[in-house]
């Protein structure tokens, strides 16, 4: 016999099933919901009555007349304005806030320069940035159901504490609790690669793929691991820190304090440092005209496309190191796909070919594993943050088919 807790859990599951079908189905009748969900018509009617009462679903007229002269069914539609969700990305260069509707569609993004070394100050600024974004989106604060936040560092999955974000100079900061205090709504916190992996599986290059790894290559290097349709957090939420695996013995210093890490030799910062070193050595290069200005990967890729020897060498070295790091993932996890995201991917198809070649040289069994660029680009972190905020209230935990 089921106790009250079991009955409540079953009701929540049934409600999530119906809500998901309405959200995805456009205009849909109660009869069709019962057919697709395999729930009884009375159960569906009870759930719809509650959703109508809450304003989550609305009736939008009648469907086509049925054969035999029966009355046409009342049609239902998901109410996009019933709720709002916020995605917050604490990036190395900027802090950004996305306002999304009840479907998770991002309607507006606002940003400010990042604050390093002072997470408390970041919390005060985020309150102002959220207010600005909601005002611009014309969304009342009362409509916000939950917030998803991402940070480039180690996040304890249970407590929501940012244990270490070296590129932000954050350490042991209770990010989830601090955001909840500032914003007065439920908050979920994830590493940016974990959030991006969720987004890529729902809406991007890995849609429909059950096991894949999303690899971020930008100011840092990290991975979000999805196994059998579920995000893999590890014991505390620290999975995917491929950027801090050594790939070069006694190599350059890394922000984590070690030497030769993948992040130290393949990130955008590593590429910029390599350009500056080449210019300082007065090597003949098209990049010398840029002097001491930071070098972005698009500029390096453009120079490489023009045949610049220095740019070609720098990209090839980074691709070799990245391919070696990815080969570790293939050997250990045997995924179906590797998705590359982040600024370094902007170097283009020539860079991707170099990465694939390095993977083929270093991985035990590289064949059959696609290495593809993200189709979400710089939207991945915020999209994933919003989707994870929605999971906080909808409890839709599957990535594949989500």
Quantity of strands, as a count: 16
What characterizes the major β-sheet?
5 strands, mixed
Biggest sheet: strand arrangement: 6-5-4-7-11
CATH class value of the largest domain:
Alpha Beta
How would you classify the quaternary structure?
Answer: single chain
Question: Radius of gyration in whole Å, from Cα?
Answer: 24 Å
Q: Which CATH-level-2 architecture of the largest domain?
A: 2-Layer Sandwich
Estimate the global geometry from the Cα principal axes: globular
Cα distance, first to last residue?
32 Å
Annotation field: number of helices: 12
Low-confidence stretches: 395-402
Give the name of the CATH superfamily of the largest domain: ATPase, nucleotide binding domain
CATH topology of the largest domain: Nucleotidyltransferase, domain 5
How many separate structural domains? 3
Structural class: alpha/beta
**What sequence of helices (H) and strands (E) makes up the elements?**
HEHHEEEEEHEEEEHEHEEEHHHHEHEH
Proportion of beta-strand residues: 15-25%
- What's the overall average pLDDT, rounded? 86
Query: What is the helix fraction of residues, given as a range?
Result: 40-55%
Essential attributes:
402 residues, alpha/beta, Arc Repressor Mutant, subunit A, Nucleotidyltransferase, domain 5, five-stranded mixed sheet, 16 strands, 20% strand, globular, disordered C terminus
Topology:
Layout lengths: L3 H22 L2 E2 H8 L3 H14 L2 E6 L11 E5 L5 E7 L3 E7 L5 E8 L5 H19 L6 E8 L2 E2 L6 E4 L4 E4 L1 H9 L3 E5 H12 L8 E6 L3 E7 L2 E2 L30 H5 L1 H13 L16 H9 L3 H25 L3 E5 L7 H14 L7 E4 L6 H15 L8
Parallel strand pairs: 4-7, 7-11, 12-15, 15-16
Antiparallel strand pairs: 1-3, 2-3, 4-5, 5-6, 8-9, 9-10, 12-13, 13-14
Helix pairs in contact: 1-3, 2-3, 4-5, 6-12, 8-10, 9-10, 10-11
